[in-house]
Design brief:
34% of the residues lie in helices and 27% in strands. It is an alpha+beta fold. Strand 7 (124-127) and strand 8 form a beta hairpin. The mean pLDDT is 92.
Length: 182
């Protein structure tokens, strides 16, 4: 899979109200959309719920939605970002590239953009992406090497110069809401 430098891929999967759907948005470092894909809602039947049991949600989220979204993207981003921690491992498996979970934090800003600190949990770091905002909580897949953490933090800092890193998730939600109304 060739990497498209200077782009970030965002992936979101929602399972609200018994219906599952997902979307992927690839943006350049200015936040300008390059690719957008989404799935139609999937509402499992009662029979499917019985047959799949506790594995139904995992099957729908990972194999049907996540894998199909990732296969649709032809311009592979330099980094995939999710907002559901349970998607991190399957996202890593399917993309075989750099992936992370990204969330805001309530911590005070660190000294300078690019600062990276362990959050005290395995593979969880605080990354100061810009010089004024609160640091971001970044969770990496298990066994991520320290040099990969620093390289990925540098990508986030570079992108944060021209865009708000968590904002594309809001666009995905709004786009899916528009699709629901049509």
């Amino acid at each position: 899979m060739p990497l498209s430098s200077g782009s970030l891929g965002y992936i979101a999967i929602d399972g609200a109200e018994g219906s599952f759907r997902g979307a992927s948005l690839v943006v350049d470092f200015r936040g300008i959309p390059m690719r957008f894909y989404y799935t139609d809602p999937i509402k499992p039947s009662r029979l499917e719920r019985v047959l799949y049991g506790n594995a139904l949600e995992v099957y729908l989220r990972e194999e049907l939605i996540l894998e199909s979204l990732l296969n649709a993207v032809d311009a592979k981003p330099s980094l995939w970002i999710c907002r559901e921690p349970d998607l991190l491992a399957p996202l890593k498996t399917f993309t075989k590239g750099k992936v992370l979970f990204l969330a805001s934090s309530l911590r005070s800003p660190m000294d300078a953009a690019g600062n990276v600190e362990s959050a005290g949990e395995p593979w969880v770091y605080m990354v100061q992406a810009d010089s004024v905002s609160a640091p971001l909580r970044v969770v990496f897949p298990e066994n991520t090497r320290e040099d990969e953490v620093k390289q990925t933090a540098a990508v986030l800092v570079d992108a944060a110069k021209t865009m708000e890193l968590l904002e594309p998730f809001g666009r995905i939600q709004k786009a899916l809401a528009l699709e629901d109304k049509e």
